[in-house]
Give the backbone structure.
Amino acid sequence: EVVLTQSPGTLSLSLGERATLSCRASQSITSIYVAWYQQKRGQAPRLLVYGASSRATGIPDRFSGSASGTDFTLTISRLEREDFAMYYCQQYGSSPLTFGGGTKVEIK
Amino acid sequence: QVQLHESGPGLVKPSETLSLTCAVSGYSIAGGYYWGWIRQPPGKGLEWIGSIYQSGSDYYNPSLKSRVTISVDTSKNQFSLRLSSVTAADTAVYYCARAIMVRGANYFDYWGQGTLVSVSS
């Protein structure tokens, strides 16, 4: 099973700042098979990025994803108020599908 | 617009079977795609339970496989989850979702709002 480790656990930033969220896989996976989700309190997750770097339909271009080996990154270029939430990565390069433990992006 | 809606009992007794249904609107299950279940214990992260295709082809998380059955009813445009022999560790918000299949594994593009199932006597 591929274990995904997300860091940091919490990211405290101000409006307009850049957020960099990390997701590291415990073993090599097909690099493009990572998705990122945003989850707000009391809501279902929302797909942001799939294929490591492709934005889902309707997702603003301030969200971007990248990959390097077993390291995956979600970047939010300029934080807006609605971006403060939990973020999860998920790998689908091998079964079972697994999710990371999440990063909370909070207002500083 | 694809919409999914989970329904089922909010409280299940230990050792009994949890049963949930996901009604899909805005898209015909028979038209393709996989359909999946994911759960989230209170205050914790996400865990994939399993996924099924409209033909009935399914695959499960090995950690739950011995207790899980997912089925699909194309005539009602819905799919269902059964989890047997539940314990308090199965208390979670259960989500259904539409799954995009890529080389044998899924990511999820549309989600239901989730339903909380508590296991308690």
